[in-house]
Specification:
heterotetramer, A alpha/beta (247), B alpha/beta (528), C mainly alpha (205), D mainly alpha (230), A: 247 residues, alpha/beta, six-stranded parallel beta sheet, globular, B: 528 residues, Rossmann fold, 3 domains, elongated
Chain lengths: 247, 528, 205, 230
């Protein structure tokens, strides 16, 4: 039994326990507020506009591979799609989701179908679209989609590489708005330069909490904060011990 | 001249007329003598405000109910039912209304076919006395504008007189006693024996108010019209900036590709590239090399150009290659790279190299390949059995390979930071194991440097050598000498990066400062 | 009533595979490898379902006289031609490599080349859109690295080459590591929400 | 060059020009080329999946396997059959079972990958930054290594602190702790900006190389054509 594997299991169990604990505590005591993230504030306004002015929202889920780390940000994108779907499905131009991976495409169609059934409106399978099956063909398909449809705001929450610049450039040409975050470092650097409201690093995973996708999303953020400072303490302690040759 | 006054409208009529010339009311010679004739014409035409009734108040022709045109509007059926001819509602204050009849139901006694019947003339033709009366009124001289009487001012008493005048033997046309004649109305004031007349209301509207009304109406009509979107100019500031950048960059590259004679000096020394060179020099003859191909076709130019000098050096020492990939495009990119004609050596499939194809499942697939290569990829992508010694000799590139650390070197061509980390982390336990002779070398895109360099810098090293981007490839070309592919790109690359830095720096500052300056200038002008 | 079967499957299978990562018990590791193998097959099938979805969407556009139906014809033509030819000859045959080399590579490489102009354009507009310290540092770093990536007409500004290497080895690595650690916390939280049944993206939310 | 290569090179040149026409403005030809590209790349991806997954991993164990292998090989085939129902919206609910399976496995793979692939290795690497003994063993320049190590350590910690989500300020004013955290976050932002600036230059270098590649391809094509006629 490798020591690192056991350490890994311990981390996961601590994370799981803290999430349950914080969720229970949050019911009884007042929890600290979340810091302001401008991108999500603008997204709120864009959702409001989608209902009142009938401007369409485009949620892009990226092209992350399912059986890897990239699937996690795909799940966050699906939670946000479900949340937005419920609040804008009564508008006359409900949101459309695009994705560049087969499984994500199917899950986005399922999400729209369940939301339509929940709200009692007619479901349209076209609202979950697969626009391409490789990174660059996904960017090309999404670029064409943005050029053809009248999109008010584009929310990019998923796994992208440098090809995401093609999508943000198409939005720029239509004077649209882009809010975006990804788990890929090069994709983040490109979004930082090209998106109106870029999400940096871990902020992409906080979308569910900021849009009210569920109590567990908020608890996750508090647990991430707790573990963040544990990690900082551990690194500092380890580095100092290494410096003095203790470790 | 002896005159008699009409009991309905009070107008003077010559004696002997049975019907009033103005309102066609029935003239009864004995009763009318009691009305005071002092009610002269001027008072009739003066409205309450003392203002003379200007003709404009009856614009567009004054046609009244007797106007032949307006009669046609009422079908025979209405008449047949004995219904009163409903006065044409006149909204003369509405400009453009087609009929401008001011009529007052009470002035007009119904021309009901039943009346004709009762007088015994069944021929259905209009009686001659009526025709004469109609012809007199139709001549222009006698046509006078009638002064509309305010219905609301009419005393209730007159209404009762009007009912009494109706012939006593009148047949009941509605209600349960329909068809009977001589029925006394229960309460004349309340029980209406016919359909309530449509009273025209005449609002005194001044000229100014009329203008306002027109304005309001034009506003209402405009609301419905689709307003064309303000036409965006086809060429905006965006386009000019984009075209300018494209033209400058393309011209610079074409110029340096076509006209620059001597190639600029290649980078003198790059630590990572030098280390790879050293490791390849140490390889034994016919070394077994595992090559991971994980980049997108879009970055083929950069990765291939960077990798060509490394593989030329490797092939010069007879290295035998096993190609593997965790992305669908990998196997085809590998074939294209080996047969693109850019390499100095031509390798033969099955002899110098074998292509194991694509391992699906990302990290999970790679873990299973690293733990068990034969089980994960038993066949090459062409369907040949690669490892099986029973069905014949294993292919030369995999002879003696049972597990991953039997390979002398692992080279990874990669453009994505996540894929690079997955490979490094899965291979790290093997590479950092002191007993392992294998070394891990990365040939990557320039965008990966901050992600992969820590693995090269850390101790122990999970990555033993690093060739990053075109700069790394150019440094490697200088180490092995000869006319390598990076050299062709190097001058244009230098020109392109310089121009890009210049545009971003100068253009960015100008794009920010100029509007700020003009805004402050405008602000000062407002202040002065 | 929501069907409890789906969450049970997702949570059960997920926990087994997760334990297989950490506990090196043979049975658990073999079960994990088998589950991953099946999932790999299903992800491949999902890709084929995605291809069929593309076919249906664009076939409907063609038959419904959609204004952009000629684009859909080009897509379906390319898809069916490639499936037939590459499917028959095999992905690494000469004919397949010809299609890849002279259709997919030119288009994808040209799209990548377009990024060069798009990124300069974004770099020029960035300072005006977000005039703050972060942007100034971002542009300053990018300009220094760009100037030192290429030969710079043979001019060798002393110290600039070392500065480029130092930036790549120290501050850039520090920022990248901090971001990666933060992202890993986010990934663990998102994964645990699925394994706790709080998030159910498989059609039952 | 063979005639096939000649036709291919000319076709590649035309496709390159049509893609570059997007610089002038969005146009119908560019859109058509994009859709052709989406179709061809989807065709390649589907064929590689069929060659590398469907035949060797789904059907080969069923045909060539023995005993329990064949029975186990039935499971993915059944799950695949259920998954195919996702093509039709009406029967899509049948495919929820295999989707739940994929989501469960993916979540576990994501957690396992994040913990074993990023969290632990990056944390250990951060701890080893000030490892004096290792540096001496590799006779590296100790002083420079320690200074760089301290800067990387500060950068990593402040970048992590920048992402802090919960605020500890009460209604009226910020607490001392909140001020400290935000100060750390400001320093972390500087490191984030430097990292993104470096990565941005790297992405541009890759794109520039691709642009030079397209120019070289066009120039070489015309040179070959000219050589034909000379």
């Amino acid at each position: 039994m490798n020591g690192l594997n056991l350490l890994g299991l311990f981390i996961v169990l601590v994370f799981f326990g803290l999430m349950i604990g914080v969720t229970i505590l949050a019911r009884r005591r007042e929890v600290p507020k979340l810091r302001e993230i401008p991108a999500f504030r603008r997204l709120d306004r864009a959702i409001g506009l989608a209902v009142e002015a009938g401007s369409r929202l485009h949620v892009s889920l990226g092209r992350g591979q399912m059986l890897s780390r990239q699937s996690a940000i795909g799940f966050v994108g699906l939670s946000i799609l479900d949340r937005i779907g419920r609040s804008t499905s009564i508008s006359d131009r409900p949101p459309i989701a695009t994705s560049g991976e087969g499984t994500l495409g199917i899950l986005s169609q399922d999400s729209q179908r369940v939301t339509a059934k929940y709200l009692g409106v007619e479901s349209d399978p076209l609202r979950g679209r697969i626009t391409g099956l490789t990174p660059f063909s996904y960017a090309a398909g999404t670029l064409s989609f943005i050029e053809e449809e009248e999109i008010g705001a584009n929310l990019l929450i998923g796994s992208y590489g440098n090809e995401v610049a093609l999508i943000t450039d198409a939005v720029e040409r239509k004077d649209g708005m882009t809010l975006g975050g990804t788990d890929n470092l090069t994709g983040q650097a490109v979004l930082f330069a090209t998106a109106q409201e870029p999400l940096i690093g871990e902020e992409s995973y906080a979308g569910g909490a900021y849009l009210g996708a569920g109590r567990m999303h908020n608890s996750s953020l508090y647990v991430q904060d707790i573990l963040r400072w544990l990690l900082i303490g551990l690194i500092l302690l380890g580095a100092i011990l290494k410096l003095f040759g203790v470790l | 001249m002896d005159e008699i006054y009409c009991p309905l409208c009070g107008k003077p009529n010559p004696v002997g007329n049975k019907f009033c010339e103005y309102c066609l009311g029935f003239l009864d010679n004995q009763e009318n003598n009691s009305i005071d004739p002092g009610f002269t014409k001027e008072e009739e035409t003066r409205d309450s405000g003392g203002e003379p009734m200007a003709d404009e108040q009856h614009p567009e022709g004054s046609g009244d109910i007797r106007d032949p045109d307006s009669r046609d509007q009422f079908t025979e059926e209405d008449k047949g039912l004995g219904l009163e001819l409903p006065a044409a509602d006149s909204y003369d204050w509405m400009p453009g209304s087609s009929s401008n009849v001011e009529s007052d139901q009470d002035d007009i006694s119904p021309i009901s076919p039943f009346v004709g019947d009762s007088e015994g003339d069944d021929s259905g033709e209009i009686p001659s006395w009526l025709n004469d009366a109609l012809e007199d009124e139709s001549s222009p001289e006698t046509l006078e504008f009638e002064e509309p009487i305010e219905v609301s001012e009419q005393p209730l008493l007159e209404e009762e007189q009007e009912i009494k005048q109706k012939s006593p033997g009148k047949l009941e046309s509605a209600g349960p006693l329909a068809g009977l004649s001589g029925v006394l109305s229960a309460e004349p004031g309340v029980a209406r024996i016919r359909k309530p007349g449509a009273y025209s209301t005449k609002i005194r509207v001044s000229e100014n108010q009329q203008e306002h009304v027109k304005l309001l109406q034009s506003l209402l009509e405009d609301e419905g019209q689709p307003k064309p979107l303000p036409r965006k100019s086809p060429i905006s500031q965006q386009h000019v900036l984009r075209w300018g950048i494209a033209i400058v960059l393309l011209l610079a590259i074409f110029w340096s590709v076509l006209f620059s004679e001597d190639q600029l000096a290649l980078p003198v020394y790059d630590e990572g590239s030098a280390e790879v060179n050293r490791l390849i020099n140490q390889l034994p003859d016919n070394a077994r090399i595992l090559v991971g191909i994980d980049y997108e076709p879009g970055l083929a130019d950069e990765i291939d150009t960077t990798a060509v000098p490394v593989f030329n050096h490797l092939m010069s020492q007879g290295g035998l290659l096993t190609l593997i990939s965790t992305s669908p495009n990998g196997p085809i990119l590998a074939e294209r790279f080996l047969h693109s004609g850019r390499l100095e050596y031509e390798y033969i499939n099955g002899l110098d190299y074998t292509n194991l194809g694509y391992i699906p499942g990302g990290a999970a697939g790679l873990i299973s390949f690293i733990e068990n290569p034969q089980g994960t990829t038993p066949f090459s992508i062409d369907g040949f059995s690669v490892w099986d010694s029973e069905s014949g000799e294993p292919l030369p590139p995999v002879v003696g390979i049972n597990q991953i650390n039997d390979y002398d070197m692992i080279i990874l061509l990669v453009d994505d930071p996540d894929l690079a980390r997955i490979w490094i982390e899965q291979l790290s336990p093997i590479i950092t194991d002191p007993l392992t002779l294998s070394s891990l070398v990365l040939v990557t895109s320039a965008q990966l440097e901050p992600v992969v360099r820590p693995y090269y810098e850390s101790i122990p090293q999970p990555v033993n050598g690093l060739v990053v981007g075109l700069r790394g490839g150019a440094a490697y070309s200088r180490l092995i000498g000869g006319d390598q592919l990076p050299g062709k790109f190097w001058n244009a690359f230098g020109m392109g990066t310089f121009i890009a830095a210049l545009i971003i720096l100068v253009g960015g500052l100008a794009y920010y400062v100029v509007p700020e300056l003009s805004r402050t200038v405008r602000g000062q002008e407002k202040v002065n | 009533m929501r069907n409890p079967l789906y969450p049970a499957v997702a949570i059960g299978v997920g926990i087994v595979v997760l334990l297989g990562y950490f506990l090196q018990i043979d049975l658990l590791v073999n079960v994990r490898i088998m589950f991953l193998e099946w999932a790999t097959i299903l992800v491949g099938i999902a890709l084929l379902v995605g291809v069929v979805n593309l076919l249906i969407v664009h076939w409907n556009k063609i038959t419904s006289e959609h204004p952009n139906r000629y684009n859909s014809m080009a897509l379906l033509g390319g898809l069916i031609f490639t499936l037939l030819v590459v499917g028959y000859f095999g992905p690494t045959d000469e004919v397949s490599v010809w299609i890849f080399n002279y259709i997919q590579i030119p288009i994808e490489a040209s799209l990548m080349a377009l990024l060069a102009i798009v990124l300069i354009y974004a770099g020029v507009r960035l300072l005006r859109r977000k005039p703050n310290l972060l942007t100034i540092i971002f542009i300053g770093t990018a300009v220094v690295i760009l100037l030192m990536s290429g030969p710079l007409f043979g001019i060798d500004i002393p110290g600039l080459a070392e500065l480029r290497i130092w930036i790549g080895k120290v501050p850039a690595v520090a920022g990248a590591r901090g971001i990666l650690l933060g992202i890993s916390l986010g990934v663990i939280a998102a994964g645990l929400r699925i394994l706790m049944g709080s998030d159910r993206p498989y059609g039952e939310n | 060059m063979s005639w096939a290569d000649w036709i291919g090179a000319l076709l590649g040149f035309v496709l390159t020009l049509l893609v570059f026409s997007y610089l002038i403005g969005d146009n119908q030809l560019f859109r058509m080329i994009l859709h052709l590209f989406i179709g061809v790349s989807a065709g390649f991806a589907a064929t590689v999946v069929i060659y590398n997954i469907i035949f060797p991993r789904m059907f080969a164990p069923l045909i060539y396997g023995q005993g329990s292998e064949q029975i186990l090989a039935l499971v993915p085939i059944i799950l695949a059959g259920l998954l195919i129902t996702k093509i039709s919206p009406r029967f899509a609910f049948i495919g929820n079972f295999p989707m739940a399976y994929i989501v469960g496995v993916s979540a576990a793979a994501a957690i396992g990958g994040a913990v074993m692939g990023t969290l632990i290795p990056q944390t250990l690497a951060s701890m080893n930054l000030l490892d004096v003994q290792a540096s001496q063993a590799f006779d590296a320049d100790l002083g420079l290594r320690l200074v760089n190590g301290i800067i990387i350590l500060i950068g990593t910690i402040t970048t992590l602190a920048y992402f802090q989500f919960s605020t500890f300020s009460n209604i009226t004013e910020k607490t001392q702790l909140q001020t400290w955290i935000e100060a750390l976050g400001q320093v972390g932002q500087v490191f984030v900006a430097i990292t993104f600036g470096f990565l941005f230059a790297g992405v541009f270098s890759a794109a520039l190389t691709a642009l030079i590649g397209r120019v070289l391809f066009s120039v070489e094509l015309f040179q070959s054509i000219i050589e034909l006629f000379l």
